[in-house]
Amino acid sequence: MGFISDLEISIAKTNSLLCIGLDPILNKIPAHLQTKKDFIFLFNKLIIDSTHNLVCCYKPNIAFYASEGIYGLRQLEKTIQYLHEEYPGTAVILDAKRGDIGTTAAQYAREAFEVYKADATTVNPFLGFDSIEPYLKYKDKGVIILCRTSNRGAADFQDLGVYPSNEVRSLKPVTVRQKSSLEARTIKPLYYHIAKQVLSWNKRYKNCLLVVGATWPEQLKEIRGIAPDMFFLIPGIGTQGGDIEATIASGIRKDGSGLIISASRSVLYAESGKNFAEAARIETIKLRDTINTYR
Amino acid sequence: MGFISDLEISIAKTNSLLCIGLDPILNKIPAHLQTKKDFIFLFNKLIIDSTHNLVCCYKPNIAFYASEGIYGLRQLEKTIQYLHEEYPGTAVILDAKRGDIGTTAAQYAREAFEVYKADATTVNPFLGFDSIEPYLKYKDKGVIILCRTSNRGAADFQDLGVYPSNEVRSLKPVTVRQKSSLEARTIKPLYYHIAKQVLSWNKRYKNCLLVVGATWPEQLKEIRGIAPDMFFLIPGIGTQGGDIEATIASGIRKDGSGLIISASRSVLYAESGKNFAEAARIETIKLRDTINTYR
To answer: Does the reported pTM lie above 0.80?
Structure first.
C-alpha cells in the first residue's frame, strides 16, 4: 500500500499518466455557475465527473483556494472529500510547496495530510532534510520534492553550479593548486545535487517523488539518469508550453511509466461556456492519447 | 510610507528590535483558556495586550493555524484584525514562506496581503525572480526573503558552494586550464548568492528584507557585509539556541538598527498557568533589554 503503489494501480486502470491540476481562476469559471453558492467546488466536480476515468490523479494547488480566504479553502476541502468518496483510488496531490524548519514543517504536514487528507503533497527542499522529514514520516503518503521547476526563474538558483557536498562544509577559495580535486570532479547544477540527495532519502523512506518541469527536457533527461526508478511530477505542458514528445523521450521510465504529467489551464478552460466539462473531457482524451503515443 | 519606514517608526517608539512569533501550540496553551470558543485568538490577544509596547512587530506563522484547519485560520484572521484595530502602527509579518511559479505566486501574495492583510510576509526564493515579483509589486508591503535559515538542515543546500552567476548558464566541467577565471573568483555558498540577488531586486523595489538565522553568527556577519543597509529578520533566539550578543555583534546595522529579532516559544510559554501573559511580559522585557545592551 501507500501512495506510489496506489498510483501504479491507477495508471494501469486508466491507462493514463495524465494529472489534472484543479486550479480555479474565478473569472474563467463559466458565468452560469458563478451565481451558485459553492461554485468553485461545483466547477471542480463537473470537471472531475467528466474526466475521472481518463487521469491517474488530480492536483489542486492550494494557492488558488487560499487567495479566496476561508470560503476558498472550504471549496478545496469539499473537492478533496468528493474525490475520496466518489472516486476512491484516484489519488489527490495537494500542490502546496511548503518549506519550513522541522517543528513548523510538522504543522504543514498535518495541514496537507490530516486537514485536507491529501494522498501526496509537493514540498520545497530549500530548508534541507529537517524540513522534509516530518512529511516522510507519513509512510503511506507521497512526498513530491521540487527539483527543477517549470518556470523561467527556475534558472536563477536551481541551475547554479555547485560543488560536490563533501567539499562544502569547509568553504575555501579554490586555487589552481587544488588541481587534483578539480580534475577529479565536475561542477553540477543545484537541481542535480537535490536529485541526488532526494534519492538517498528515498532509499530509507521509499515515498519520495521529484518535481521536474516539462519545459526543460534536457534537465529532465539528466535527472532521469540520476533517479532511474523514481516517479516524477511533470508540470508545464499545455499553457506553459512544455512539449509532450520531448518530455516523454527525456523522462519516461524503462517500464513506460514513472511520470505524472500535469495539465491545468488548457483542460479547465478549454471552453468558457456551458459545455466546458465536455470540452475538458475532449482535451483530456487528446492529452492522454498523445502521451500514450510516445510512451 | 510602506512597511520598512513604518517599521523604523515602530522600533523608535518601542525602543525595541524584538518581534514575538505568534505560533500557538495547542497543548501548551493554559488549561483555563482551552474551554473557550476562540481560545487561540484569546491566547494571542492576552499575549499582545501584555507585550505590545515592548516589541516592534508580531509574526504569526500560518502553519500553526493551518494545521487546525479552517477553525485555526479564523483565529489567525481575528488575531491580525485585532492587531490592526487595537495597535495600529505595530506591523504584522505573516510567516508563510511560500514559493511557486509566477501565476501561482500572485495568488499567494493575495493570500498574505489581501486575505490576511499582513504588512509583510516571508517568501522562499528557490523558484527564482518570477516567484517573488508578484509580492514585490505590493510596494507598501515588506517581502522577507529566506537567505540562511536557523535550522540544522539549512546547511544541506543553502551552504553549497556555488559558482558566480555569470559562469552558470553554460555549465561545464571545470579544468585547471580555466586558471584565470578560477584565480579571479572564489566559490561562495548559495545563501551568499541569494543575498546578492536580493540586493539587486531591492535596488528596484525597495521593499525587500532577508531572513538570516540567529544560530549562525558567522553567516550573519558575511550577509551584513553584502547588504549593509537592509533589514534582516532573525529567527532562532530563545528555544532554538541563538546567542543574542553574537547576533547583534554580527548583524547590527551601523545605525544600531536593521534587525528584527524574533522569539516565540520562550515568550509564549514562559509560564503554563494563569499568569502566562505576565510571564510573557517579563520575558519580553528581558529579551528587549538584553538586545538593547548590545546594540
So the answer is: yes
